[in-house]
């Protein structure tokens, strides 16, 4: 596949100049998917006919001279947790196998209104529960940097599609790091917007107080362009924030941090972090200093309890949310031979429909919410959440943004942590606090770890509804790294083995 236009911004400019058509771009990406996705398995469903029809419509609108979005005609991969009318939406689970929603999620509605071409639905950990995309009922996704390694999770399919050049843009969702952690290990960019900054209507819920859809791409500017499309108030989402969206595109283009104070979170580093990850992180800090930023160390003492609190809050909410999958209204139905009652059918359906990790979290959450244990577990976890939020509020009184490595390590091998849930959960130790506080978080690549030559992620955290700050810092760091490397940001294109 020849990438004349490697970024969405370049594609947008080429479309505007009529150097290329959306149909041609879409065909090129569909061909790339056909070429490599047998190895990568980023997609669960490719909507070839629908994508070409959307591309043709974008080309016709542009030819007619009508008002058009900057991303009109640019292809995109959609995480399979967002409803798209008439398109299979499985959440990576057998429970929803072949379910075709009768409506669009708000994110999809906004994408369609902007003329973005949706190529298909990407693989994910079942119901977004996982850090490796190994929990998908339809098989794991492989990291294009090394097909024996994980692409992160739960949104590994979206991140892998970007890294493999199967799409220039993608949508992910982030409950405890499911956008940022895959971005880190695939050398791509991923943003979790402020909670409530992007509508959750039509996003199949895992943990309602933590889930947040967000943009993914290969550059900070592309991510900002997509953020601008999907963000904004939605009256159909009771948690949606009714205020103006920050100008993230202008912030990404600004590429200037002179006078900014950047706080390094003491608790998100050190022991347990791979040496190469820490090395690249420190080098990135030096680049920001060279560009005029002031670096200070910040302590957020309650972050050490974030992982434990998260794994009480998220499973508790999952226990409630996943109760709707009862075999009666939608999804699969098992064991209904006319001789057994509804409870037996529900039991058989849930036994076969849910995978081991989903069952583990439902059981954990149900126990935490049970009579006599609610205050000791769920109630206490919510108190910890408040303390984490206060840590952030105090920190942002003295700094503009906070930073840390996105993940403790680079991508690990498929199967390496499958039998050790705690080891798997620890992958999200640096990302979970962001979700607990509802603030914005970004991961962008800051180089390759010397031990294994795999991507390292740099995390930027910004206050509520000030997402533009992380785009400003991210855009500056990205530009400096591109200048240093003498080439665009990390590309796994030449590393992808095509059988």
Automatic annotation (TrEMBL):
One of its GO terms (molecular function) is ATP binding. PROSITE patterns: AMIDASES. Residues 24-469 form the Amidase domain. Pfam families: Amidase (PF01425). GO terms for biological process: translation. Belongs to the amidase family. GatA subfamily. This is glutaminyl-tRNA synthase (glutamine-hydrolyzing). It comes from freshwater metagenome.
């Amino acid at each position: 596949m020849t990438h004349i236009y490697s970024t969405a911004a370049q594609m947008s400019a080429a479309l505007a100049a009529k150097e290329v058509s959306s149909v041609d771009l879409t065909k090129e990406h569909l061909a790339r998917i056909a070429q490599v996705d047998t190895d990568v398995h980023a997609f669960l469903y490719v909507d070839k006919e629908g994508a070409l029809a959307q591309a043709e419509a974008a080309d016709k609108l542009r030819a007619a001279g009508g008002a058009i979005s900057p991303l009109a005609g640019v292809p995109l991969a959609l995480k399979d947790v967002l409803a798209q009318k008439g398109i299979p939406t499985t959440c990576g689970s057998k429970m929803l196998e072949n379910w075709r929603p009768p409506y669009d999620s708000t994110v999809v509605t906004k994408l369609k209104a902007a003329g973005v071409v949706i190529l298909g639905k990407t693989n994910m950990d079942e119901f977004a529960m996982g850090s490796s995309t190994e929990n998908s009922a339809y098989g794991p996704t492989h990291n294009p940097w090394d097909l024996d390694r994980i692409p992160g999770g739960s949104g590994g399919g979206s991140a892998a599609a970007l890294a493999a050049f199967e799409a220039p843009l993608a949508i992910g969702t982030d409950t405890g790091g499911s956008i940022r952690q895959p971005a880190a290990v695939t050398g791509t960019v991923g943003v979790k917007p402020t909670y409530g900054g992007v509508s959750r209507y039509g996003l199949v819920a895992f943990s309602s107080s933590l889930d947040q859809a967000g943009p993914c791409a290969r550059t900070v500017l592309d991510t900002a362009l997509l953020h601008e499309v999907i963000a904004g108030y939605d009256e159909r989402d009771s948690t949606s924030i009714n205020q103006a969206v920050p100008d993230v595109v202008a912030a990404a283009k600004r590429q200037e941090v002179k006078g900014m104070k950047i706080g390094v979170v003491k608790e998100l580093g050190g022991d347990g972090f791979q040496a190469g990850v820490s090395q690249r992180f420190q080098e990135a800090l030096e680049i920001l200093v060279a560009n005029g930023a002031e670096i200070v160390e910040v302590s957020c003492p309650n972050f050490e309890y974030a992982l434990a609190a998260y794994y009480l809050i998220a499973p508790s909410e999952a226990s409630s949310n996943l109760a709707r999958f009862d075999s009666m209204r939608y999804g699969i139905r098992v064991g209904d031979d006319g001789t057994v009652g509804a409870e037996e059918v529900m039991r058989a359906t849930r036994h076969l429909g849910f995978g081991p990790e989903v069952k583990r979290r439902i059981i954990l959450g149900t126990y935490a919410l049970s009579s006599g244990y609610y205050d000791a577990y769920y109630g206490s976890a919510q108190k910890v959440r408040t303390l984490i939020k206060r840590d952030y509020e105090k920190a942002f009184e003295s700094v503009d943004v906070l930073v840390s490595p996105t993940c403790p390590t680079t991508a690990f091998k498929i199967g390496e942590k499958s039998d050790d849930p705690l080891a798997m959960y620890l992958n999200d130790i640096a990302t979970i606090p962001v979700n607990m506080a509802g603030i914005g978080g970004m991961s962008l690549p800051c180089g390759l770890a010397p031990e294994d030559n795999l991507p390292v992620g740099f995390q930027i955290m910004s206050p509520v509804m000030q997402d533009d700050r992380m785009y400003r810092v991210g855009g500056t760091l990205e530009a400096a790294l591109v200048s240093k490397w003498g080439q665009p940001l990390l590309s796994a294109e030449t590393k992808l083995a095509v059988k």
